[in-house]
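Hi, here's the filled form for the chain we discussed.

Project: internal
Contact: R.S.
Residues: 530
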Amino acid sequence: MTSPLDCSWAAFDDNAPWVLEPEKIEWHNTAVALRASAQQEIPVLTTPTKVPPVARLFTVVWVLSIALLPWFIKKKRNKFATSEASNAYISLRMRKAVERLGSTYIKLGQIISSGEGLFPAELVNEFKLCRDQVPPIPFNEVQQVIESDLGARLTDVFSYIDTTPLAAASIAQVHVATLITGENVVVKVQRPSVSKMVRQDLRVMAWLAPHLVGRIKVSALANPPALVELFAETIVEELDFRIEADNMLDVAKMLHELGQTGYIVPRPHPKLVTRRVLIMQRLSGFKFDDVVGMQNAGIDTQQVIRTGMIAFMEGAMIYGVFHGDLHGGNLFVMKDGKTALLDFGIVGRLTGARRMAFLRLMLNATTNNVVGQVEALRDLGALPMDTDIQAVIKDLNLGAPVIDPTTLSGEELVKEVQRIVKAMMGYGARMPKELMLYVKNMVFLDGAIARLAPDLDILAEIASISMLFAEKHGERLGRELGIDHNAVEINLDSVKAGFGVDASTNSMTYRDLQKRRELIQKRMREHVGR
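And the returned structure, exactly as it came back:
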């Protein structure tokens, strides 16, 4: 059987409900301008005004206060038997408060839900419910949005549409449907008032952020004004589904050009895409955490992980394009072992000097060049341009011998974290959007390894991927970076240091790594809970 013509330039499924010709697609031809317009709006939304949207500010403060007060009283009265119980209680109350506050705060919850290892486990697990278990909007409102944006009655477009959503999240909800022409599709519909509410909430956050600087530990670390700007950069583009559909084409094209046959992207419809409605090809498969189902179907789950790691890193390094919001609800594994990517509202894009800085960061990490790593972080925007590189290395003990964190007491671990946080704050460190998305995705892949390939040798896999990159892309990367790629020697000492092990360690499974992390977290919790 001959593959559809669009499979010659993009990573699409061979069973094509329609064939895409980008030059003939109206929403594709306007996407660049739409994306630029969205980015130009960010400074306007994130510049503090003299007077905030008072009504919305009052609502936010009131809802959060109601959520926090009972927890605060119980904690003061020592009603919690353990710190885990305290975390579970406040996480539940915060999740319910977030859902009451609506789409903007639910999106924040979704970001936290992808931060396994970065946030308390109880908070991550609770906020995972914000991914696709958000209370749905009534179908009559869904119908109004669809008919308004498509300019046609529902029955003129669909022969069938399920009134019960397949999933409901912060910005939109998804319904299964069949077009009047017979194709099985998924219909993504934006919540009616979300665009206005998100912009209003960003203005509230922008007004509050400067007042939080230095007042609480978390906000001091995060740099609240910079955090609001970062959040705005990730959410504003999500409010226009024409941009998302174009992201689907870009990622599909990138995967095809890289020869990544293990990933596919559903086709967006060439005509049925508007600002608030996105109709796409329907694909099906195993949920990403259904290890038993995949293995029973003969799917190599280690290969699924390996393909994911390589595709994600190649996209970022070679093309500067990568899916920016990987989590279990945004991908599934098909029966043939290929992984389908979903939800392209957030896509990382590294261009120009930032992509070069990212390349140098990755290269220096695999050659143990500490100075080069810090310089690359500076050029990415994580540190001010006038930062004293040698001072950072000294203050963070980056040139010192590795200290195995499992040999430290809970008190020593907490003090070390506090020391690093204080030093980073002193240098004005911040998290650029693309780096944040990349790190968040790496955290997801880390958790995916725990479920799909716990016995994978992490160090051997990183060495193997590094060699693959050197062989496949070394000449191109060397040319772009102005170096002799043949002279580059892989040295994973920096990677090992990141895991807290010394240079003599040659093998470490994910299961071993997880045991080390659990021990470290246990000691820190015990110390904090005293």
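Let me know if anything looks off before we file it.
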